[in-house]
Amino acid sequence: MGYEHGRYFSLNNEKAVSGTNMNDTCNAAGYPKPEGLCLPEFERDGCGVGFVARMDGRPSRSVVENALQVLTNLEHRGPAGMDSPNDDGAGLMIQLPDEFLHRVVAGGDRYLPERGGYAVGMFFLPSDRRLAGLCEEECGRIAEERGFRVLGWRTVPVHSDVLRENARAHMPVIRQMLLAPENPDPDRDERQLYILRRCMENHITSREDGDYSQFYISSLSSRTIVYKGMLSGTALPSFYEDLGERDFTSSFAIVHQRYSTNNYPTWNLAQPFRFAAHNGEINTLSGNTARMKNREPLFRSELFGNDIESIKPVISEGGSDSSAFDNVLELLYHGGRSLPHAVMMMIPEAWGSKYSMGDDRRAFYEYHSAIMEPWDGPAVMVFTDGRYVGATLDRNGLRSARYTISRDGIVVLASETGVLEFPGDQVRTYGRLQPGKMFLVDLEQNRVVSDSIIKAQICRQTPYRHWVTDNRIELRGLLGPAKIPAEDPDVLRQKHIAFGYTEGELRMVEIPMLWGQEAIGSMGDDTPLAVLSTRPKLLFSYFKQRFAQVTSPPIDPLREELVMSLMSYMGQKRNLLEETPEHFRLLKLPHPILTPEDLERIRTAHHPDITVRDIDILFPANKGPEALEESLEKVFLQAEIAIQEGITCIILTDRNMNSENAPIPSLLAASGLHHFLIQKGIRAQVGLIVDTGEVRETMHFSILLGYGVNAVCPYVAFSTVRALAETHYGQTVTPGEATDSFVNAIKKGILKTMSRVGISTLRSYFGSQLFESVGLGKNMVDRYFCGTVSRVGGIGLNEIAEETLRRHRAAFPNNGTVPRLLDVGGDYHTRAGGERHLCSPESILVLQQAVRDNDYE
Which of 26, 38, 47, 839 is catalytic? Predict the structure, then answer.
């Protein structure tokens, strides 16, 4: 606990990692627990990935051997440091080796049906024999309850002596479950196996009679099987005895060599997963997972029927970015979409108006952009469902994928070329995957399907172009007032004081935006953290942006302008597992900054799909800090009632601030409401706009958008730039031009903010919470900013209310005389009476005197 100038701060996690026993800091699976300043869930990884396939679809031993050779040649992408007791992990996904399984399973009274009539599950069970036995017993019971016959369990022969120390210490018991459906139906059975696996996982992980962290189902399918572990690629065939058998064959194989970047390798997180293997980093993960959680209450499906609740939550807790992607991919696939269709939804290519693209393909991407945000980041994603084997590249092309096709029908794709050697006269074609493109092998039709053909088929299977044309709702199409009258200067100054504007901000932040650019400054900030400052700070000051760990090279918003987008949709979202014209009946916003005229158009829109309600975010100024919490609860209740009444857009506004009512900090109200609606399961049913006088710079917008706001109208900031243009710069810029320039400056700033975290589209940025709070108490963060990283604790709701009331009292003094001048500020330049600086004139003077006099004291 620390104290300075009346402000408290503390470490929200007070345990230290150093000096602790590994068994105390890890669970049984070897995954570290959150301790001290270390939060393992925010780590990422980069990897080597590839596949080998025969176009004729015939199982072959050579495919497995070639895949293991690819894995060996990719080992440099999965190194283990000299001081590391373990390897990062490697794995192999293949077609079920039918001939091999019949040989090792059949005998005596054991019987295995023909291919397609049985399924195999690859289970990691707890190393504790009692817990492993319980897992087998419970999983068998659940399987029988769901209409499957358990044919038996098989112990997978392994050689643990090839493992390093830590991998061996956390090695699970590896067993295969063999089961058969009562009435085989290939498509239905795969879906039922998916539901069965989720039932098993949810049941076992919810048990409290032991540590089940090692329990994991690598695969459960009648088509594919996964062999993986926390070992190197070269050790994989030595560890798994099965991989060396001559009748262990397949028509395809996906391989993955994991290279962890500041990450924690575990058996569970080795790849491939059930459908995909991934090289890169999903920078949009936190936003993607939050949005998926919002959608879950709307799920309905004839294919899943009453089992829809059994698959929730869709994204398993404790997984990596790659495993979360795989979780959603298998949901979309089992929900009725083809595998290429689902991949196109999750990793769309850039489709802006500047791209040369057919109308049908553009309409496909535009339609799906309204119902699924991109899973964005540097990525090569390799995938299979047993029929298709393919790969796709992220929209920026920040990862490489190269392929070779031989004359005898062998297809190889990997992170780099040369993973398999072919004589020159045996190479039919070779190349590299382009940004946003897909490479696909159809094992049923025995051919490589080009990107244009597969996408043309998918884009024309449903009339997306007509749905988009007939149902598009655009802001410019809404009627509204032509112009909002200018603000009275005295009223504007009062609002400046109430919302904490300073003279330094006007000069250093607002004036440069009159010409469409943010101010340029040097890095470094020698002012106190907001929690240690003696001056009232906006709530935004308590948040610091995080960054992308392995996006290399970083995204440049100028050079990558074609693939970046601020376009978004707002309104009532619908069931992700269906596709109807109504899914596109959302308000399309070209960017998230609304002028007062734009907001009035939305308020007065006479459209059945745009119904709006204003909710004041104010609290009584004369009741003290305690009134803030009560007012917040009132806001949340009003929003819940509005949604129940069919409202599709809520506007949180502080325009009605007066001497009796102070504004609730917009970030507190918006984030608190966002999480309240998520907990109620109704966040996806409404768009959220913040109409506030508090917001005026890029980071304010970025934080609000990151905490779930769909659009922002900074009405005081617009009045400010208009007034500056009229009073100081009328000869060079008009008020209208100043407004447009301000919007352009903020747009550029948001793009820069997104680029720092490796995100290309605003749709993926919403609700991502890619910020860390510094100086906010744990109770406040857990309640109003759920899931935010908060290593350093501090103030709570009462202190936030008191800072707001200090600004409000300055704007509405008891004598009724509003100050003529704004506070000097002093955040950017040292000013008398302003914010303190580490490098103040006094400290520099004393330093110079000490050097001249050689006086260390």
Answer: 47
